[in-house]
Amino acid sequence: MKISTHNHWDPLEEIIVGIADHARVPTVDRSTMSMSYTNHPIEKIKPLEGAYPQALIDEANEDMQGLADILSKLGVIVHRPKAIDHSVEFSTPEWKTTGWYTWCPRDLLLPLNNLIIETPSSCRARYFETRAYRDVMLSAIKDGVEWIAAPKPILPDESYQFEDIDRKPSLTNLEPVFDAPNCVRMGKDIMFQISNTGNHWGLQWLRNTLEPRGYRIHPAEHIYSYGHFDSTIIPLRPGLVLLNSSRVTPDNCPKLFEKWDKIWFEDCVVQGSKVPGGVAPCSPYIGMNILSVNPNTIICDSTQEPLMRELDKYGIDSIPVQFRHAMTLSGGIHCATLDLRRTGTLEDYFS
Fold first, then answer.
1. Which of 76, 141, 200, 333 has its CA 20 to 30 A from that of 67?
2. Positions marked active-site
3. Cα torsion at 136, 109, 101, 195 (round to 10°)?
4. What is the pTM of this model?
5. Is 12-342 CATH 3.75.10.10?
6. What is the pLDDT of residues 160-219, one digit of tens each?
7. Domain ranges of the chain
């Protein structure tokens, strides 16, 4: 199995689709709060710790299987992760925690051109999560793919701050930390988001690693701090980008997109947390978290009709799928998948 994916829009050939088995709210500590609940008091979140209701997990798996079936019918090769018991507690010399879930393969693996990078997440509960994808990655190595990992972060309590979250990310800059969706892949150019899940040390490590390979890494800061970029800046094809207008404005829009056509959109349908008394660990804009099958077709949560109508104006067809628990599990369709192979070559879209 070769890994070859240079952007978010080339025709899709091979993908990982996540699972909801054993999903839970992990040990609630500074790391968990920074990742998912930054603007809530820890006293409100601590009681949510523990497994999600089995009925919710069953529904989430049903929806994920529906997504996998649609992708298979489109001719895409689909891989699924191994189930992991996320209730098992593990520790380092600095802390101990349970796991979280295997719902979002996008978050911890960054695939490029015959290369996959295991990223150094800010979330302690995700320290060993990539074990679920080990068989897929070992198969890729057998076929000549280079699998590298960023240095495992220590993640002491000092890695997180909550005193000034209006002006600064909750993640501090002690060591290289970032998730894969902090990176927007556009051929030779990769935009890197400074946020609660990616810091300047992470930017520097990625530059050191990828710029000798011919990539250009562009920092994006002071746009959106509360998570990943794939519900904020979504390139749809060369020259066209979907922007979350509640976060991106003409003033802070990255100059990289100066000559691109822009779809300004924020009219997402709110689903909310499906756990009684629960708190959604992400915003309603998870509805913009879409997966491109090719430059003219996306897969979208079936509730997001305003978004589908808007994309239709630009000649983009939408395939709606049932996806009931995106806000509960903090992962939309893009988060819950990881493209491993897309038709196309490494191109320069900006020079």
1. 141
2. 179, 228, 335
3. 180
4. 0.97
5. yes
6. 999 999 889 999 999 999 999 999 999 999 999 999 999 999 999 999 999 999 999 999
7. 12-342
